[in-house]
Design a protein that fits this description.
single chain; about 170 residues; mainly alpha; 7 helices; about 0% strand; globular
């Protein structure tokens, strides 16, 4: 997939968006990693979206819950770090989209859904999770890591490798 060509100003804005979303992921991951008793159990148990059954099953199984906790803590941290660095930006964007869509589907702001865990605002269909998915889609499709990020260095290193001769 080729990157879209934008001018300097738009790419600076998209890079800032990438770094800000990356910071959000990194901080969320680190705060969970450093919390002595972090568990996603409460969030999963209160799920009411289309995947509620799967989320409830995860919360009910100690082994699956332990895996979900590790994936959440380390996944958020890794995605955040990669986005901030602009390294494997497209892969990090897709992983971030997957994470945030799972959060959205666990507690969608749809009519008739009420949750025990309070939110910081009033939403209908669109909430911060859906906005973050859209932001990550912009980062994915523009490949901002190739403009301002380590992806540019990686591409340069890969592009300079000598061609492997074909087998005779």
């Amino acid at each position: 997939m080729e990157t879209t060509t934008f001018g300097r100003g738009p790419m600076i804005a998209i890079t800032a968006l990438r770094v800000l979303v990356g910071w959000h992921f990194l901080y969320e991951g680190l705060s969970k990693l450093t919390a002595p008793a972090f568990t996603a159990a409460g969030y999963l148990k209160q799920a009411k979206g289309p995947l509620a059954g799967a989320f409830h099953s995860l919360a009910a199984s100690p082994d699956m819950l332990a895996n979900a906790n590790l994936i959440t803590m380390w996944g958020l941290t890794l995605v955040g770090a990669l986005l901030i660095l602009g390294l494997f930006t497209r892969l990090a964007s897709l992983a971030g989209i997957a994470f945030v869509l799972m959060f959205y589907l666990a507690a969608p702001p749809w009519i008739g859904y009420f949750y025990a865990i309070p939110t910081e605002g009033s939403y209908l269909i669109v909430n911060k999770n859906l906005v973050e998915v859209a932001a990550l889609a912009v980062v994915f499709f523009t490949g901002s890591g190739l403009y301002y990020g380590l992806d540019r260095i990686v591409r340069g290193l890969i592009g300079r490798r000598p061609a492997v001769p074909a087998a005779a």
